[in-house]
Amino acid sequence: xxxxxxxxxxxxxxxxxxxxxxxxxxxxxxxxxxxxxxxxxxxxxxxxxxxxxxxxxxxxxxxxxxxxxxxxxxxxxxxxxxxxxxxxxxxxxxxxxxxxxxxxxxxxxxxxxxxxxxxxxxxxxxxxxxxxxxxxxxxxxxxxxxxxxxxxxxxxxxxxxxxxxxxxxxxxxxxxxxxxxxxxxxxxxxxxxxxxxxxxxxxxxxxxxxxxxxxxxxxxxxxxxxxxxxxxxxxxxxxxxxxxxxxxxxx
Length: 251
Fold this sequence. Notes:
By secondary structure, the protein is α/β, with parallel strands linked by helices. The chain is built from 9 helices and 10 strands.
């Protein structure tokens, strides 16, 4: 398994909505440099876990730590500033903005002094350089001036990843990045994630087992809000409980 020091940890995280328990005592940890897959059947609690980690939801009980600092009660913007970036199951972009401007907004948001009318020229140049670097990194450099709404759905997914990168996260949470795209676009997105995995810790919710097995160094399996298995792709693919609750369902 890749990875160094523990960077993210959830301890006995439970999330209830009235009588429904969406997460039930979830405890797991992510190491720096790891690419962790989170899999499980529909309704297993995968996106709810992301929403709790990123502050969209406050856990009913349990704690979340980022580099040893508890973030359980922080609002989403503060958690983002601590170094967590994410994408969503339903693509979240700015349709009427260009690719370049969509990424520039995020780059500017992390500046010590965000843009104002009296901004120094060298700061503008710095924002521009960082924006272009991200475009190049994800393969959108030739589409920088395209409106986001004119991109293919696969490229919109990649743009959303680029927008998450623009806030300089140390961990990137990707929620179903290949959902609803063609096989060719799936390959393109997987290649981008593979490239990013050499620079950043990634947690990936994904239904495609081909993508999970290609990208992930370790896998956590959720079912009915609980962790039922954890291990390497090889271990998970042989796990009888996983075959029963997940792989069997997909076959």
